[in-house]
Amino acid sequence: MRRVATHACVLALLCAPALAARYAEPDTGVARLVALGRLWATVKYFHPGVSDANPGDWDTVLLEAIPRVQAARSTEEYAAAVRGMLESLDDSLTRVGEDVPEPAVPNYGFSSVERRGRVLLVTSGPVAGDPLDTATAVREHFGQADAVIFDLRPGAVHPWLWDARWFSNEPLPHPAHRFRLHAGNIPIRGAPDTPFFSGLVTRSAPLSPTTTGASDIRAVFVVRDGHALPLLAAALQDVGRGWIVSEQSIDDRAFARHGYARHYRMSLGENLSAVVRTSEMLHHDGTVGLLADAVSPPDALAVAFDAARKSIPRATRRTARSAYEVKRPELAYGDVAFPSEPLRLLAVFRSWAVFEWLYPYRSLMERDWDAVLEETVPKVMAAHDARAYHLAMAEMIGHVGDTHAVVGSGELNEFWGPAAPALALRPVEGRPVVVAITDPSADLGDVSIGDVVLAVDSQPAESRLATLTRYISASTPQALRRDAVNRLLRGADGSLARIRLLKRDGSEKDTALPRRRDFLARSWAPTPGSAVTVLPENIGYIDLRVLQPHDVDSAFASVQNTSAIIFDMRGYPNNTRSAIAAKLTNRTRIDGATISIPIAFEPGSQTVQSFRSVIELTPSSTPYQGRTVMLIDDRAQSQSEATAQTLRAVHGTRFVGTATAGANGEGSNFAVPGGIQIGMTATAVSKLDGTQLQRIGVTPDIEVRPTIAGIRAGRDEVLERAVQYVRANGKP
């Protein structure tokens, strides 16, 4: 790609009032920007000439193109603006044109063979009968010639007519095929310890079969525009045995039908389309593309006879491209919370592309992702300040439907509120209910466990929750409600949360509680208390939210002789899955879940690389023999869900409670302008039986939902039901 303008020049361009003017109708203007963004992203991810080593270069090209597209008064000016963006690639295959199909390439035979001294002139054209039969007649003349000219200007011949064994007894290497491939999304920190990568991939060059009795004959191929060239022409040119003479400049698109110079056509609207190269021809000397040895429109055939006599020079050197790239992170543009409009649009296009091609659960999205792009573009353009822009980005990612897709920024943290009262809320019977006091020393007045929150800061709770859910991405309805309720009371540090409560006796009470940052931090802390307890009737209880890896041995020593163990997984564990599994079995390994990584190497499609994970164990000499039960609810996600599945596999653990969050897989993230970081699930993980987990969750064998009455009475109804189950069923 040619060197593009410096960032200073770009900033000057973005500020130019003339280019900032909008001449197109609003709907047309948005549609053009959406098309531009899709095209930019397609080139970024799939054009082999866009380097991962300097990602900012292609960003800069977009930032220059946006105001030009916005200023376009007509379809012609719009096309010119897009064409200007693509011209920086120096690639004639990647281009803008009218939305018309490419012409078909005929499959002729060799219609005539003429000897001119020691040179054969073979011309293509329509023939009577089977075109394949004409190859034999041509081959019979080779022994009487030093060179052969194939005049293919009338049209291409059937590919089966070409045989490398006519020209060489040794295997003849053909050019290789190189394309860009992405395996998952590389996180901001890099990829040394992840399965994700991005780079150029080379498909090995094929070799022609060996033979004996081949002719030591030179070959010259004469074409109009390259579409009639056989792949053999490039192979012979590479080894110095073939020449190409063309009436027009040619490139490797001539071999698209052979899998080289693959390209993708996409609509730009207004009867325009763009063609994007997605692969390139790679020669053994490290150069790419295809060049004619001579371009001579008026006397191509005469030049071909000169080439047959070795009296013209070889083709000028093709483009050399490094086979080694250093993948550098995307530019974050995070120095300003409210970046320029072009940078805000870049944020939208970058986000759309990551989830379009590198998101393993793309097929599970409920919203049309293209429609989300079309909705978000005008929102970020209309944003009048940092808050509006950051919320527009959060709303866009909310449509992904992935609890790991957290949109984080300082601006959004202020929107959610960096502080909270010393209360913990949970959705109970569909309502936000006080379930814990996070700081006993806080003055909470008449607030009681089990109070229902009716309003916050004069806004009805349900109205406030509806607003919050617009900006939260969640895999399941239960996870969405959980996260919204967790944010319900948040606000500015030092402010008062004015709360209306529904009390036990049915009365409503208003109270004002101070918000503090440390109160909010404590609401996320693990439940205080011992990780291990022996309940009445010799039932063990292990709180996986508290248990640490170094305490697993002592925990199991405490419950080894109990009749059952109840694992509390209503939260997040501490990487204890394998250590616990080893205490429950004498197996040294178990099959884990199927893990899939999205593979993108061509726009318009996505495939995955899947493998079955294996969990290696150091088994206990005396594995636990009692029954095991696990308490679950929407607070269990990702590692929690993996732990649940593993314990089910090794010990038949039963689940009691409600469905988990339904968000599992290795996480990743990326940055967009404005200091925004966006998370995502980067690998797809199934249940151990191969069925879907994402957006469903681990479902309970025994469903138990807490009640407001139970919360007010201080009961743990889920634990009570688990104990009841153990009593009724005894040891397995």
From TrEMBL:
One of its GO terms (cellular component) is outer membrane-bounded periplasmic space. The keyword Cytoplasm does not apply. GO terms for molecular function: endopeptidase activity; serine-type peptidase activity. SMART domains: TSPc. Residues 495-705 form the Tail specific protease domain. GO terms for biological process: proteolysis; signal transduction. It comes from the Bacteria. The keyword Methyltransferase does not apply. This is Tail specific protease domain-containing protein. It comes from Luteitalea pratensis.
